[in-house]
Every structure is written in C-alpha cells, then in structure tokens.
Amino acid sequence: MVKNLVVLDQPTALLQRCRGCSDTMYQASNVYFICGFAAIGGALFGFDISSLSGTLGTQAYKRYFYNPVSYTQGGITASMPAGSLLGSLVSSFLADKYSRKVALQISCVLWIIGSILMTASQNVPMLCIGRAVCGFSVGIASAIVPVYQSEIAPKEIRGRVVSLQQWAITWGILIQYFIQFGAAHGTGGGPSDPDQPTAAFRIPWGIQMVPAVILFVGLFFFPYSPRWLASKDRWEEALQVLANLHGKGNARHPKVLAQYQEIEDALKFEREQAVSSFKALIEPRMLKRVALGMSIQMWSQLCGMNIMMYYIVYIMEGAQIASPLATASIQYVINVVMTLPAILFLDKWGRRPSLIYGSFGMMTWLFISGALQQYYGQPNTEETRTPDNSDITWIVINNRPVSSAIVSCSYLFVATFATTWGPVSWTYPAEIFPSKIRAKAVSLSTSANWFWNMVLAFAVPPLLWNISYKMYYIFAAFNGAAFIHMALMAPETKGFTLEEMDEVFDSGRPAWKKFGRRSRLEELEREIERGNVKVSVPAGGRPVAGDPEQGVELKKVATPPAGTPIS
C-alpha cells in the first residue's frame, strides 16, 4: 500500500492551454497506428536489403556493371551498411536535440536523395555513393524507430508494437523484391536477355522513394515522444500526449497519471545523479547493458539472416532447383508471414525464450544445409558452368531431393529468424536503457548491427566464392555462441515499464532466474484509482490548489525515485 499523498493539479486546464497548435491539425492518438506508421522507417531498411537481391540475377545488371562478383559485388553491397553505420552513430544526436520524430523526417529526405543517385547510376562508384546515402538514412531510421515506438507504447504491448519494425522490414524486402521481379521479367526479353535494358533495375530503385515521401509527410500528424518532451521540460505537452495515447484525452485517467508520475520520478532521479549521458554509458552497471544491446544486434547479423536476404539468388543457383528468382521469392513471403506470430505473442512468451530457442534452431538448419552441400555438391567447373550459374563455385547437380532439402533448410532458417530474433533484436535494445542515455545506447547497439552487416556484406561473396559450403558451418557456430551468451546474460524484460528496467538489471539475480516483482506502474495506477495517491502536475512552474472533486486532504511530499519498490 502506498502511504503518501502528493499534490494534485487540475490537468484539464493545462491541456486547454497547450492544445493551441493541435486544435488546427489532426494528431494521431492510436498507439498501434502511430507505431505501425513509424515502422515505415523499417520498410526503408527492407527496401534497401532487397534493392540488390532481385537485380543480381538479371543480365541488365551484370552487363551494365561489368558482371561484379567477389570483392566488387561485396563492395557494392557493403556501401549501404557502411553508410548505415555512420547514420546510426549520428542518430542519437539528432533524436536528442530535434526529437525522435524530426530525426525520422531527416532520414526520409536522405533516403530520397540516395534513391535518386542509385536510379541515375552511371557506374559502380556512383551506385555505391547512392547506396551509402540510402544507408545513412536507414542507419538513422533503424536506430530511432524502435526508440520512438517503445516510448509511445504501454508496457503491455510494447513488444508487439516494436516488433512492427521487423514486420515492416520484411514487407519492404518482399515488396521491393516483387517490384524487381516484375521489372526483371517485364523489361526486354526477361532476366536472361543479354540485351535487357537498364530499366530492369532503374525502375525499382526509383519506386523505392515512395515510402519515404509518405513517411515524411505523415509524421507531421504524429505526436512527439512524451519522454522526449519531458526531457526538454515540456511537461504540459508531455501530459497531453500521454492523455491522448493512454486516456482517450482524459488527463485524470489513473494510467495517464501513473505514467506521468513515473516519467517525472525517473527524470528527477537521473538529473540528481548529475552525470553526463556519455559518462553514464560507461558506468559499470550500465556498461553491461550497453554490451548486451550491442551483442544482440551483433548476433542478429552473425546468425546469417541478412546474408540469406542479400545473396539468396546465389544460394538458389547453387541448389539448381527451378528459377532462382522465383524460388527466392518464396523465402521473402515466409519472412513476412512468420513474423506475425512474434507480433501477436512476443509479449506473452517473452524475449528471452525467443533469443535462446531461435539461436538453437538457426544453428541446426545451417549445419544441415552445409553438410548436404558438402557431401552431395561438387565444384562448378567448365563442364557444369553456364551463363546462369557463372557467379558461383559450388553446385548440386541432378539430385533433386538434396536440392529440395537445401532450399527447405533455407526456408526453415528464415522462418525461425522471423519468429524469434527478427523482432526481438529491435525490441530488446530499445527497452533496456534509461531515458537519459536511451537514444545514445540504442544508437551504439544499432551501430553494432550495421558494422557487422557491412563486414558480412563485403566478406560473404568472397566466402561463397572461395569456401562455399564451409560458410554455413561458420554461421552455425556463431549461432551456437549466441545460444550460450543469451542463456547466461539476457534477463526477461516483458511486463515491465521502461522506467523499471533498472530494477530488472540491477537486482543481482542471474539472467536465467525470473524477476518475480510485480510492475511498480500497476501498483501506482491502482493506488491512484483508489484515491490513495494524488499526482502533482506543474502549472507554469507554480504549485496549484487541490482538486475539489477528489475530496481529500492534500500534502506535498517527496516521491520515491524510479526503481524504488512500492510497499
């Protein structure tokens, strides 16, 4: 039972004063709609991942860019994650200074510029520059979208709505791939036409500007993060946003007041620490979390998923089963469909099981796929090489059952990732840090994703060319290491607010032991609803009279800092 009472202001009067700008412009208030729309930033990531996979197998791309393979193709592919690495590192400064929303709008402008450069590419260097600019945009969006979503959403559905980022990525991959598939087969004589016009790849690269334009314009009608507003001492606006999001416009709603109080307590506690956000990042208690967030993003790359997305056409060419472009397209559909279970149930089954079982599953499929190629494949020599498979060195010939098994393992690998690591790798880092360092810490975590994305995008074509099936064993071993790491170091975070993560991580419990304490927010909300606690709301910086409708004696007392258990 909470024993203290704190001053209650009449929040309705505050809202009337700060609604001036929003009265003249529609502002979204549905959490699912806001977080789903913001996830278009993730779709840009998907568009960029797929912006090459559908063109690699076309004669137009091979002819115009002089059949890039090995290190040349690796450089083209890696230019995007290289730009993303820089964008993710810059993102926190934009998000903290200008807001999460404005940072996303800046990323949209950069995406449009990069897409124009790609569409107009005259040579490999120009293509790389365009991809790097697009990558810079995606680096910003991929770091800030989960932060914005996690700061908007209530704890009960936070995993679900942040998972929309991953679902949007899968939709971006799928849509762009089929745009490219259509352009490849509808331009000239198809992807095998040696004289196929360059429109086969320029059309898809031009179309990819559309979602950025939609996101840029739409964000004008979306709220700022209430936690960012509070960090800038724009408390009245923060209260309005919370009321619209969680109280249907009612600032007296217990859930709104409880969240407002918790944000205020957490921010007050952080400011009393008088530690810069950069110094806070390397404090021992926080460094462990930063390392965990960066590790999760690192493993999400070293598991091998994006390699499947970038170079799936090469894998299907090696399997020698049906059309490589058509066979690869099935994988993208699986990626979209199998992300849905995570969106629906992540907040029920939790983050930790997804990380552990997902690593084990992906390890299994990669070991099987590598073994099948090792024992049933052969070098792609002059006798077996054709214009359609000249860019691979290892091939399975005239063995349909084995080829089908290899393709099936690829599909099962994608399904496992989509249901587990795909959504959790964005959700977990976005929710484990305190407000003061959240944007910077997530920026660092995301930069780890893009660093390893860049390394692998450049390294995998030479690996496929030089060691072929052994590459699968390497990524399987990475998944084994991730399985052990997550089992030992990743505690469960479902059911706790962002402000309660300090309790989860600083409890001293091993990661595999459940943190049994109930959410502080739920207790606070119940006590407010019962009238046992009244929440102080600032009015122009001055204390205000009590609310006569509540009929209680009001006393001003100190409130406990975030992380203090309610007794």
Lateral arrangement of strands in the main beta sheet: 1-2
CA distance, first residue to last residue? 6 Å
The chain-level mean pLDDT equals 83
List low-confidence stretches: 1-23, 540-567
Structural class label: mainly alpha
Helix content class: 55-70%
Could you state the order of secondary-structure elements as H and E?
A: HHHHHHHHHHHHHHHHHHHHEEHHHHHH
Using the alpha-carbon principal axes, give the shape.
globular
Can you describe this structure?
InterPro entries: MFS_dom, MFS_sugar_transport-like, MFS_Sugar_Transporters, MFS_trans_sf, Sugar/inositol_transpt, Sugar_transporter_CS. The chain is mostly helical. The chain is built from 26 helices and two strands. Helix 3 packs antiparallel against helix 8, helix 6 runs antiparallel to helix 7 (100-119) and helix 9 (158-186) crosses helix 22 (421-431). The longest helix is centred in the first third of the chain and has 29 residues, at 70-98. It starts with 10 loop residues before the first helix and ends in a 37-residue tail after the last helix. Mean pLDDT is 83; it is low at 1-23 and 540-567.
Secondary structure: elements and pairs:
Elements: H1 11-18, H2 20-23, H3 31-38, H4 40-53, H5 59-64, H6 70-98, H7 100-119, H8 124-152, H9 158-186, H10 199-207, H11 210-218, H12 226-231, H13 235-246, H14 254-273, H15 277-281, H16 284-302, H17 305-319, H18 324-337, H19 340-349, H20 351-376, E1 378-379, E2 394-395, H21 400-419, H22 421-431, H23 438-466, H24 470-489, H25 501-505, H26 520-530
Antiparallel strand pairs: 1-2
